[in-house]
Here is the input.
Amino acid sequence: MRVKMTLSYDGSHFYGFQVQNSGVPTVANRLYEALRALGIDAPFEASGRTDRGVHATGQVISLDIPVFWQRDLEKLRTHINRRALPHILVHRIEQVADDFHARYDAKKRTYRYIVSDREPSVFLTPYRLYTAPFDAAAIHEAVKLFEGEHDFRLFSRTGSDTTDFVRRMYRARFYAHEKDYIFSFEANGYLRSQIRLMVSFLLKIGYGTVTKEDLKAQLLCQREVVRDPVAPNGLYLTRIRY
Here is the structure.
């Protein structure tokens, strides 16, 4: 049986999602340990790989499970969580079509980035970016420039083997939530560090050090203005749409 698992994890405890050498604490390594302890040896596919320090509240993986777990998926979820907690939690396990693929079947991916301009809390610094005060209205106006189809090559870190830099941004928002501010992006896909570079640019607009015209120029690949991404700790993979 093929299943789809939806899970959360605290990225501050891992060196990214992808599999690395034995003993390296990654999300995938920890999941494989939990699954193998339950007699599940099949490889899994993830909707996307998150970098070190990046969190998830809606990551999705797909895999095949052996017949002895097929009758009680809730029991399987319970046993996985006993082994994966406290830093990984499986929310749901659902049966899917035999050809379902968590990555290739994904249509839209939503990420959020949390920032705060208040006094930092040592208990929350792994989960949001504390920053200097900014002009929220200026950011709210500028964030919409990312919507639509763009060549995001100047919003990507070097070192990737990607040759296609065009992505469609369905929605880009910036809003206040309780004591924090939230950046929210929904797109068909992202380049390496794209969101962290986008947030970096928008915060600089909020600081008044760059302008909307600078952002337009970088989106049009006319000139590179901002190349330093924000830290990963405020970034969350929140939803995958199929």
Observations:
- The chain has five helices and ten strands.
- The first strand starts at residue 2 and ends at 9.
